[in-house]
Amino acid sequence: MLPTEVDLAEEFGVSRPTLREALSALQFAGYVESRRRRGTVVLSASPVPGVARHVGAAGSFAEVVDLLEARLAVEPVVLALAAADPDPAALDEAQDALSGMALVVGADTIPADTDHRLHVLIARVCRNPLLREQVIALLDRASGPFWQQTQAVAWQPDAALCREWAEDHAGILAALERGDGVAAAAISRRHLLTAVANAANCAQMPASERWRVRRLAERFHAGRGPADPDPVP
Fold first, then answer.
1. Percent of the chain with pLDDT over 90
2. What pTM was estimated for this model as a whole?
3. Which residue, 27, 36, 130, 184, shows the most beta carbons closer than 10 Å to its own?
4. Which fold has domain 61-221?
5. Which residues of 36-62 are buried (b: 16+ CB within 10 A; e: fewer)?
6. CA angle at residue 108 from 106 to 111, to 5 degrees?
């Protein structure tokens, strides 16, 4: 457990707003975690790796594509509903994490699970526990070592892409804050489609799964969903 904000600010000779920004960056990077009524606790001396939180974490390229499809079908809809009645405390927590992201997004390396952590915080803005947990369950299945290894190959270090994703997260939160469900869903869908497009660049992915990824992008770009059947190539 870390000392209080007042004590830390005094120890390091900085203002409390500056300290909060630093703690937000550390939380976003996986070093610490802020817990309600308990303060800030240290998780690790190094960023916490994205370990599988569910036994069913993705372990094959086919499951990676399945998860991308499921997230495209579910996340934008849940965020649209969340915008109608967002949880203010969860929204504040997500905004704090986003502030931390702004401080680490320009770094040479960003821990692989930082995007996952922010998506979980955004999902918690939804007050409906059934919808919220459905999104978080999908995110947790996408947090295992295989998924992150695939990300490391398909998502080569790209500062422009990191900035684009940070802007997407900011846009989603702004839409939730002003109650604009249409915008929240649209930005979420665009954000996920960028991930889909990058997954298609993974050379290690079998041709059959890359074909599925391309068809997935085409369907959702065209406004269709996962229920629309595709012919088998």
1. 27
2. 0.69
3. 184
4. Four Helix Bundle (Hemerythrin (Met), subunit A) (1.20.120)
5. eeeebeeeeeebbebebbeeebbeebe
6. 90
